[in-house]
Amino acid sequence: EIMPSLVGSEMCIRDRPALSVHLANLEAELGVTLVTRSRRGVELTEHGEFLYTRALDMLRYHQDSISGLKARRSKPHGRVTVGLVSTLPPLLVPDLLRAVKAQLPDVTLYIVDASTSALYEWLTDGRIDMVVLFNLPEAPELEIIPVFSDHFYLCGKPGANTETHIEFDDLVDLPLALPSISTTWRQALEEAAERRGVTFAPVIETESSQTLRLLASLGECHAVLPGSGVYHDVQAGRLQARRVVNPDMAGMMSVARLASKPLTGAQTQVREILVEVARKVGRDMDLTVEPPPPLIRRTTPTLLFPIEGGKRWSGKES
Hints:
This protein is of the alpha/beta class and 318 residues long. It is built from eight helices and 13 strands.
C-alpha cells in the first residue's frame, strides 16, 4: 500500500504523517531501512528500490489481469499479428485459421512470414503481437511458452541411403546449403562446430528455407534443417532426412510475446489457440514439449546480413 504511491526514486512525505507511520512500521517488520531522510527530502535505499520495483511489477500484473478479464467479457475483435519463420506456416496456419474462425469470428489473423532476425526485431519493437521462434533465451522483456522440442536433420535427395542418423563431424565433408548466420539454427551449428574444432564451408547460404529444401530435393547439395520444417516433405517422399547426432542437436520452439505490452482479449485467446495448435502439431510428429538436454546455447537472433564487412555474428547467448 505504501511503495506504489512513491513516484520515481525520490518523494516527499513530510505532509503525510500517516504514510510516515506506515513506512516506519514496514521497515520495522522487514528489518531493513527503506528510505533515507535529508534536506533534499526522502530517498529510497537499495532495499527500498528493490521493494519499489517489485511493487510496481505486482501492480502491473494486477492491472493486466483485470484488463484481461474485462476484455474476456466483451466479444473479442480486431486484428492479431502472428510471426512465423517460413518453415512453420504449412504446419500451423491451416489449423490455426480454422480454430480462430470457429472460436473468434470477429478476429482477423495477420500472418507474417519472415526470417528469425526480422521477426525478433519486429516483436521487440512492438510491431507484431507474437511469434513462434526456435531456442530463444529467457529474457525479462519476453514472455515465452514452450510448444515442442525440435531436432536438426541432414536433408537430401531421396535415394539408396537408408541410414536414419549422421554424425555431426561428418557434416563438414558434405556440400552444404545452410541458413544465414543471422538465424538461431546456423548459430547453433557454428557453436557446436567451434567446440569440436571443425569448420563449415557451405556452397550457398540463404534466409529462405524453401530454397534450402529445393536444393536438397534436387540433389544439388545437402541442407541442415529442423525436423518440423521438413516433416511433410519427408512424408511425401520429396526429401530424405537423417537426424544429426553426437552431439544431438535439438532445441525448443516457443511462442513469445513482449511482456511489457498488455494483450487484448483477442490477442490472449489467439495465443492460447496458437499454443494448442503448435503442441498438437508437435504431438503428431512425436515431438515432446519437454526441453531437450541443453547441448546448444539459446541465442538471440542477430540483425540481417551480420557478416557484412567480414564481421562474424555476436548474438546474445544464455
